[in-house]
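Input chain follows. Return structure tokens only.
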Amino acid sequence: MEVKVFKDKQEVAEKFSEYLAQLISSRDVIYVALSGGSTPKVVFDHLAEHFQDLDWSRVHFFWGDERCVPPEDQESNYKMTVDHLLSRINMPVENIHRIKGENEPVAEAASYSEQLVRFLPSQNGIPQFDLVILGMGSDGHTASIFPDQLHLWTSGKLCEVAEHPDTGQKRLTITGKVINNAMEVAFLVTGADKREKVNEVLRYDRNSQQYPAALVSPQSKKLLWFTDETAAGSR
């Protein structure tokens, strides 16, 4: 694990964008699972402003999770990505593989699993992303796997239906077997509200194993954290 601590959310966005651009430039084709949240939004804005000349035709974007809402809904991770990145860069439409949150959840989980099998290379008998981008909630959840639904992490499926513990909102999420099979995994975590869980997860003590974020341990051993000083604290 490599933990990179920067001054603030904007610097996290700048440094992560440089990392992603380097990764894209090093591959003929690259498969990336995106995350929603406030930090990716700043990343997408920075990429759209400063990396328009990147060869985006090499990139295939997927999503690690999505709310079960239509693509024009303000809560849609897909819509956020369109507004802040996809509408501002030159990426072939066939390289965009969205989760259809408007569909019946169980059927869409199966359909998206089929997409992963169809488009991604296979490693260990499991579809393999070049990069999975993750966030972490203040409760320690990642993707849309919450602490009270750890069975979804260990599911034998590639994509599952999750439920927000407070609102009951249905979500679709890739599972632990897909996340930990990625060539690289990068967390984007900023803000003082994340500090307690960041410290617990990075210490990886017995208590931290109740948090899905602490279960991220790619077989490749390539795990990066991009975080800011307010989230990292003293560690």
